[in-house]
DNA sequence: AAAGCACGCAACCGCCGCTCC
DNA sequence: GGGAGCGGCGGTTGCGTGCTT
């Protein structure tokens, strides 16, 4: 009954690996690569099954593995991603550089799961076990709603990716606006990135929405903010005014500024961050949390066909280094856009969606009007492009 | 000091999906 | 179309270690 185990052959060793075995495996892979795992043990002189070798390599011997304690940020990332993806450890691991799925799984099972349970949170649903006293407008309730929206969004993205992958394998080209090329050109000051959308090769790398989102809430310390000043959206006025921003497709609630997954409001941040960009004025407050998401949202809709303008330019007030990395394969650096971007930055504030200038108080557009204003800019900006 | 217990982690097992023939 | 082979994934196990009694 059932499938026979892969190590059924007599004489194949099981259990902990010895240093000698590790060395044999390392030496062989360094010289020849792993190729076929099934054939590898014999060639490497190991009395192990291929599966065991693969596991030892991927979980332990690989040179690009980070070992040791998980940082607070890594913990937060795991919890967030688990809320979105469930026990899909390999998917979670792709968002944690140098960590293996096995390590993350172990860490979840031995640490994080218990911690959440202690906090009264169901580690599987990420919802509070007891809902008494939590009104629908509570932070936790909103967080749950946000996660739900993010999961919906991520799910849509995965579907789109899968479709793209199949289409690209079938050799379908130019049949879908998703297959246009997405480029971001950037000024010398990366606070002003410009995203060009144009016809281009079909093989699009996927835009990692989760990382984008993660990048929006993970910048929590002053030093990090200093390092990432260029990833911020410049805005003024009330933080609550940007609550519940939704994309036109209603698949995404932008993370709330004050919930558990976002950094706290950063007021008067220019006290600690030099206004190098030229966009910031002395009295501007700075917040962040939706620039990356905006770019991600655009890419998502562009690739799903909701936006099909060609030769568009998206001006952003900044993308985090993280999302820049995600875009890296499709980015084109263009330093000539610096001045143009700066002026478009002003354009943003005139439309009440952020940017520099004196948009204080409650002067932000909300929800649909926010997104509509962005889309309107496709027609109104000098380059015929939406502005984030 | 020794036994019992809890914990963490490496490794195994079985299933699934993809690819090739 | 379907079966075999293979790699990958997630659940689980079992051993080593450190702590408690």
From TrEMBL:
<dbReference type="Pfam" id="PF00249">
    <property type="entry name" value="Myb_DNA-binding"/>
</dbReference>
<dbReference type="InterPro" id="IPR009057">
    <property type="entry name" value="Homeodomain-like_sf"/>
</dbReference>
<feature type="domain" description="Myb-like">
    <location>
        <begin position="9"/>
        <end position="61"/>
    </location>
</feature>
<dbReference type="GO" id="GO:1901957">
    <property type="term" value="P:regulation of cutin biosynthetic process"/>
</dbReference>
<dbReference type="GO" id="GO:0000902">
    <property type="term" value="P:cell morphogenesis"/>
</dbReference>
<keyword id="KW-0217">Developmental protein</keyword>
<keyword id="KW-0677">Repeat</keyword>
<protein>
    <recommendedName>
        <fullName>MYB domain class transcription factor</fullName>
    </recommendedName>
</protein>
<keyword id="KW-0238">DNA-binding</keyword>
<keyword id="KW-0805">Transcription regulation</keyword>
<feature type="domain" description="HTH myb-type">
    <location>
        <begin position="9"/>
        <end position="61"/>
    </location>
</feature>
<feature type="domain" description="HTH myb-type">
    <location>
        <begin position="62"/>
        <end position="116"/>
    </location>
</feature>
<dbReference type="InterPro" id="IPR017930">
    <property type="entry name" value="Myb_dom"/>
</dbReference>
<keyword id="KW-0539">Nucleus</keyword>
<dbReference type="GO" id="GO:0003677">
    <property type="term" value="F:DNA binding"/>
</dbReference>
<keyword id="KW-0804">Transcription</keyword>
<dbReference type="InterPro" id="IPR001005">
    <property type="entry name" value="SANT/Myb"/>
</dbReference>
<dbReference type="GO" id="GO:0005634">
    <property type="term" value="C:nucleus"/>
</dbReference>
<feature type="domain" description="Myb-like">
    <location>
        <begin position="62"/>
        <end position="112"/>
    </location>
</feature>
<dbReference type="InterPro" id="IPR015495">
    <property type="entry name" value="Myb_TF_plants"/>
</dbReference>
């Amino acid at each position: 009954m059932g499938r026979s185990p892969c190590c059924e052959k007599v004489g194949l060793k099981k259990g902990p690996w010895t240093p000698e075995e590790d060395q044999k495996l390392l030496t062989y892979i360094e010289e020849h690569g792993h190729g076929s795992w099934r054939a590898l043990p014999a060639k490497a002189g190991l009395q192990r099954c291929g599966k065991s070798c693969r596991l030892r390599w991927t979980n332990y011997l690989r040179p690009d593995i980070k070992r040791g304690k998980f940082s607070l940020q890594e913990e937060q990332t795991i919890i967030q991603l688990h809320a979105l993806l469930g026990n899909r450890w390999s998917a979670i691991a792709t968002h944690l550089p140098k960590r293996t799925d096995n390590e993350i799984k172990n860490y979840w099972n031995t640490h994080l799961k218990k911690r959440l349970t202690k906090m009264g949170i169901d580690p599987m649903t990420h919802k509070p076990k007891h809902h008494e006293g939590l009104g629908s407008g509570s932070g936790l309730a909103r967080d749950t709603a946000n996660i739900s929206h993010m999961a919906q969004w991520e799910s849509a993205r995965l579907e789109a990716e899968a479709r793209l992958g199949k289409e690209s394998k079938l050799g379908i080209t130019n049949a879908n606006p998703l297959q246009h090329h997405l480029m971001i050109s950037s000024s010398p000051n990366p606070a002003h990135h410009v995203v060009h959308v144009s016809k281009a090769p079909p093989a699009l790398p996927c835009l990692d929405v989760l990382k984008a989102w993660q990048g929006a809430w993970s910048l929590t310390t002053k030093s990090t903010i200093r390092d990432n000043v260029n990833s911020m959206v410049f805005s003024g006025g009330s933080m609550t005014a940007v609550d519940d921003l939704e994309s036109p497709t209603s698949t995404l609630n932008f993370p709330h500024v004050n919930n558990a997954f976002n950094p706290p409001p950063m007021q008067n941040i220019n006290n600690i961050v030099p206004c190098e960009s030229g966009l910031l004025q002395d009295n501007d407050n700075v917040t962040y949390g939706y620039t990356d998401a905006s770019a991600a949202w655009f890419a998502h809709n562009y690739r799903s066909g909701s936006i099909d303008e060609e030769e568009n330019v998206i001006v952003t007030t900044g993308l985090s280094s993280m999302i820049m990395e995600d875009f890296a394969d499709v980015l084109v650096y263009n330093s000539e856009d610096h001045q143009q971007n700066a002026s478009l930055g002003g354009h943003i504030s005139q439309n009440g969606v952020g940017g520099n200038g004196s948009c204080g108080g409650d002067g932000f557009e909300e929800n649909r009007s926010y997104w509509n204003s962005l889309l309107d800019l496709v027609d109104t900006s000098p380059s015929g492009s939406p502005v984030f």
